[in-house]
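Input record (Table S2, row 307):
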Amino acid sequence: MHTASAPAKVILFGEHAVVYGQPAIAVPVSSLRATVQVTSGKGLHIVAANLGRTLPININADVVDDALALTAKLVLQTLKLPAPDLTLTLDSQIPMASGLGSGAAVSTALARALSSALGQPLDNETLNTIVYEVEKKHHGTPSGIDNTVIVYEQPVYFVRQQPIERLNIAKPFTLIVADTGKSALTRVAVGDVRKLYEANKDHIQPILDAIGSLVKDARLALEHGDIAALGPLMLQNHAYLQEASLCSTGLGARVGTAMKAGALGAKLSGGGRGGNMIALVTPETRNNVEQALLNAGAVHAFFTMVS
Ligand code: PMV
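Output record (PMV complex):
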């Protein structure tokens, strides 16, 4: 039996602006994973345990609408192999449509498990290309940051169409990740920013530039272990995203709650409009902030060490 998995991720800085060529920083969340188990079967099937559905895969179909089926098809095309008699059972702990990279993690785990069950495990570069193709089909114009941080499972300083840069985090720190409970489609948020950009470039371009500039400052702070500098940068980044229409009442309120409870900084993370927010905490403030967010209506909150 073959098993493979892939982590969730959070974007620390630079979401949305990254679509326009600005840098962004993302880290894997290794404690939260999508896992795929491969067993023998009749024909090729994907069982999505969490979603309660079983999918027969027809890799000869011209149009494959399902992201999981498309991943399997691209793996087999890359390996030049016919559909095998295998059942791929997916089990994901990562909530969907909430900015934690669930789609990319599921595709990565699936492609890894299938290719290794076929005796030809894909290298990360090929895997990254496949997962990006799936992301493109289902998310419009993704920057590629999600698949990159998830496939390589390393902190990344990401610039679209540039070689991947691993980010060296000099001093570990703790983040609370809290789910507003409102799912929001990244594709829609990205499309709305595009409309704003087309309608009023003079207003949006300086915001994107300012985000890019603060991401560079954040990189230096992370590389020098200057954790205290990260909090104000997170708040600034959140304010810029708010100006670009990406906040929601719930997200804005949660950021306020986290700050009042003692966080050093907080912001939305990922597509925005709902989904998850992140708060920078210390060992002393961690429980307080987590509890305050849950009391304020976050449906789920957990902490993760970033290192
Ligand atoms: O919502 P998520 O976790 O998929 O994050 C998307 C990040 C964006 O910058 C908004 C889009 C992108 O493709 O980079």
